[in-house]
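Reminder to self: tokens first, then the designed residues, so the page reads top to bottom the way the pipeline ran.
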């Protein structure tokens, strides 16, 4: 099986002039199997990749700049979705979705992708807008034809599929709240939207990652802003479990740092569940990375660890994997 790598904006983009959207296909020995790139005037970025059951690669990110964004005159990037042959890197199809006229910001760092059981890509790609616009799109895997466009969490940051391929997204809700949504796999209809606000209601709250457990319930991790009893902490490490059927809150856990109480930016940016259904969340509790395990049933904390770096993924055996700089953990997904 081949491996695939993509670069973040900091490594991929030339800030002026020509930029490259680059994807590398790597053989099992890590030797280069193929290279795909698009070279266009502008800011072309690859931000996420997924691999379907045939080994083909779907990449998403920023496409060409489109005139007419708000406030005018301004340009905003299109959302680009590209499918490549896993064997050769040959482009199989490419789709570009223009931003809405009222879009006011870039989308690159938030564009993400996953693939359903029929090898159809589901893509999140939100722009900042005054009124809600679709932020989740499903494409036909064979042709790239748009199957539906739906409303997820608002500004969706993360996406996960349930056993029935229903789509779950997490991000910031319509008012900047911690938001989680479920959409129908068949139609893209929003089945439910749950938003959670901290006491400040300042519009800086966000669910940064989402997963679905074996029972179909949804777990999201991110941050709220402030909470009762705290006098100065800004952002709070937050993990919440919701009913997959209704979006009803089953439990919520909040952690805040006491080291720097007047300026903490504690946050959870990764969440998964283990074979027993318990929840493991990772992020930062200033000034250190943190890894916490909760009971999937009650939300009770089982253990807490302080790893050297932030955990960001699991392997097939459920082992936790992380990486990054050891001299600074002030990072956000």
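Designed residues (333 positions):
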């Amino acid at each position: 099986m081949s491996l695939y790598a993509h670069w973040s904006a900091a490594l991929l983009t030339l800030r002026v002039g020509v930029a490259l959207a680059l994807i590398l296909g790597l053989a099992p020995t890590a030797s280069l199997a193929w290279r795909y790139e698009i070279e266009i005037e502008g800011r072309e970025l690859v931000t996420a990749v997924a691999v379907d059951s045939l080994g083909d690669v779907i990449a998403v990110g920023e496409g060409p700049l489109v005139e007419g964004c708000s406030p005018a005159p301004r340009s905003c990037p299109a959302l680009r979705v590209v499918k490549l042959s896993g064997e050769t890197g040959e482009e199989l199809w490419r789709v570009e979705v223009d931003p809405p006229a009222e879009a006011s910001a870039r989308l690159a760092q938030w564009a993400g992708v996953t693939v359903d059981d029929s090898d159809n890509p589901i893509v999140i790609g939100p722009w900042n807008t005054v009124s809600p616009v679709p932020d989740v799109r499903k494409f036909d895997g064979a042709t790239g034809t748009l199957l539906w466009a739906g409303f997820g969490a608002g500004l969706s940051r993360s996406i996960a599929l349930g056993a029935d391929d229903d789509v779950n997204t997490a991000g910031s809700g319509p008012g900047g709240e911690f938001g989680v949504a479920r959409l129908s796999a068949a139609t893209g209809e929003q089945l439910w939207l749950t938003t959670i606000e901290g006491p400040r209601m300042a519009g800086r709250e966000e669910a940064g990652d989402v997963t679905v457990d074996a029972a179909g319930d949804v777990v999201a991790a991110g941050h709220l802003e402030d909470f009762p009893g705290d006098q100065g902490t800004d952002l709070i490490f937050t993990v919440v479990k919701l009913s997959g059927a209704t979006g009803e809150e089953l439990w919520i856990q909040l952690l805040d740092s006491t080291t720097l109480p007047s300026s903490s930016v504690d946050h959870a940016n990764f969440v998964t569940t283990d074979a027993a259904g318990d929840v493991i969340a990772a992020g930062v509790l200033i000034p250190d990375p943190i890894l916490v395990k909760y009971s999937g049933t009650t939300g009770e904390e089982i253990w807490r660890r302080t790893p050297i770096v932030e955990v960001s993924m699991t392997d097939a055996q459920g082992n936790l994997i992380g990486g990054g700089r050891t001299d600074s953990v002030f990072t956000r997904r």
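The longest strand covers residues 57-67.
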